[in-house]
Amino acid sequence: MGRRGEAGRPPYQCSQVGRLVDDRVNDHEISVAQVAASHVWHTRPDTDECFLVLAGSLQLALEDTTVTVPARHVFVVPAGATHCPSAPEGASIVMVEIPA
């Protein structure tokens, strides 16, 4: 199991307050973190990004809308979709990157 940063890809950079877990299970990259502030607009061409919000809320800006994901809810950003996650009030999340 290789950590995402060790595999040559930068870890998720959403102005993290604290990363609790960052690992792989089979072909899935899994991160559990406390995040705050905003990330940058980006696209993951080969993976779906699944966000499970454990506490707080996460806003996912997409090209044509913004989705607010409250605690205990899941949202999947499909591969190829340009998006920008943010958590102005902070959030605890699980993020799973799933090969498309």
3D structure, described in words:
It contains no helices and six strands. It has one domain: Jelly Rolls (Sandwich). The relative contact order is 0.29. It is 0% helix and 64% strand.
> Describe the biggest sheet?
6 strands, antiparallel
- In total, the number of domains comes to 1
Through-space gap between termini: 20 Å
Q: What gyration radius follows from the Cα positions, in whole Å?
A: 12 Å
Oligomer: single chain
The CATH architecture term is Sandwich
> Residue ranges: pLDDT <50 for 5 or more in a row?
1-16
Please give the share of residues in helix: under 10%
What would the keywords be for this entry?
100 residues, mainly beta, Jelly Rolls, six-stranded antiparallel β-sheet, disordered N terminus
Concise account of the structure shown:
The protein contains no helices and six strands. By secondary structure, it is an all-beta fold.
SSE layout and pairings?
Elements (H helix, E strand, L loop, with lengths): L15 E10 L2 E11 L8 E16 L3 E5 L2 E5 L5 E17 L1
Antiparallel strand pairs: 1-2, 2-6, 3-4, 3-5, 3-6
